[in-house]
Design a protein that fits this description.
By secondary structure, the chain is of the alpha/beta class. The chain has five helices and eleven strands. About 25% of the residues lie in helices and about 15% in strands.
Amino acid sequence: MHGPVFQWLSTSPHIPIGWDLRLADWSMQHVVDERATAGMLPVVLDWRRNSRLPRWQGVSTPARVVAVGVDDPRERTFLLARGLGDAIGSRVTHVELEARLTRIGNRARALPRELHAGPVTLDLFQRDGRAGGRWLGLHPREFALLWRLAETPGASVTRAQLLRDVWRLERAPETNSLAVHVSRLRAKLHAARCGWLVRTEAQGGYRLAIPAQRQGHDAPPTTGLVGHDAYQGRKSAFPGETST
């Protein structure tokens, strides 16, 4: 094998010539099990209906996945909201696909892999947090909320800031989507004995509690809080998400 390597995630071993990065001296690994995508290799997800893997959502590192053949704008929005690195239509050429994969790889190397929030370690590639050796099972929007709060531990983040940074909304919607997602996030944190992490401010915002602000009877935090300027907010919720 020579040159960079990409994984072709598809039920078919045959990649359309327009998408075939082997024309640009890449090497291809055909993968039919989404669990085999773990690692640092970029992944090209075949979104064509007849060759799409039914369990594609199980990819281990969605930020390194580019879905190709996504001609419906709603489906592209859906995939980006699920944390995929990119989603593009059928008419893309291998030259453009190579540029997009390279950009994703450069971005991944520039961002911090992890962000610590008390006893919780947030993993950017997995889009999840773990505490006590167990994954929390965070929804992408819950992960984005906790990452945003962890950037400025102890500081109040207003509702408007969260809607702008996480939802990419400049005006507050008429729904209670933020409160619903915070409630779900707290439930998962509580199950991990760190429900005290997210505090509500009197003005309606939220903050990540630093260890000295801990309340209740949870086990004491095991790490400090580290802030990074690496968060990138996600666009609107994917189709089928409730309370958006």
